[in-house]
Amino acid sequence: MRLNSTTLAPLATRNREDTEHVPLLALGFSYELTSTNSLYLNFSQGYKPATYADTLPIDNNVANTDIDPGNTLTYELGYRGRPSEFMNWDTSVFYIDYDNRFGQTTAGGITTVGNTGRSRNIGIDLAAEVDLVGVIGGEKAVKRFGNLALHGAYEWLDAEFVSGPNTGLAPQYAPEHLIRVGLTYRWRERLKLSLLHTYVSEHYANDNNTLNFQIPAYNVTDITLEAKLWRENVTLLAGLNNVFNEDYYSRVRANGVDPAWGRNFYAGIRFTF
Question: From which residue to which does the signal peptide run (predicted)?
Answer without folding.
Answer: none
